[in-house]
């Protein structure tokens, strides 16, 4: 693949991210799926793609998939407790299988992948990592030795931009969640102030004590107060 082709890929993905910045989507999974589908378009050998989240307790979650094949391969990894996407997420930045028929790593995963899917080539890229979870961007092909050095380079471009977009989406989601929690807490405070003739500080202290005594998040306590016909003060 020529340098100009890589530049085109980078510009096109950058345009998608710019659109996300200007018009933040409400459905993060849908936005990530769009980015993953873009990668299938930019990497000629790729036929399927997906994004996997791996948690430290071994659980997997597919947050984006261009086909049922990508989702099934995550289920196989979950079942076998091994696979290239897990390795990419936790141990390496890039992992590649040239042919699942002869791959010696992850024997249980490769066996089930051969038996249950048409996929023969896989490449996976680490997207992000924190103390609890990691993410990987995965591309699959039904031909062996489908992903050469150019495909890996193109995948790295897509993965880098996808990681940036994911960070933007997560921050936007956290901001929206914080605003929603603030509104819920404010509504609960107002109800308690009216019902019990207390001020805003006292109402917040009651909510805080209820949260601490029940080991329940403050926003959830506020939601329960709102839903209850008879809020109970401490």
TrEMBL record:
Q: Which Pfam families match?
A: ANTAR, GAF_2
Give the keywords, sorted.
Kinase, Transcription, Transcription regulation, Transferase
InterPro entries, per the entry: ANTAR, CheY-like_superfamily, GAF, GAF-like_dom_sf, GAF_ANTAR, WH-like_DNA-bd_sf
Q: What is this protein called?
A: Response regulator receiver protein
* Plastid among keywords: no
Q: Where is the ANTAR domain?
A: 165-226
Q: Name one GO molecular function term.
A: RNA binding
Specify the species. Answer: Mycolicibacterium wolinskyi
- Classify the source by domain of life: Bacteria
Q: Matching SMART domains, A to Z?
A: ANTAR (SM01012)
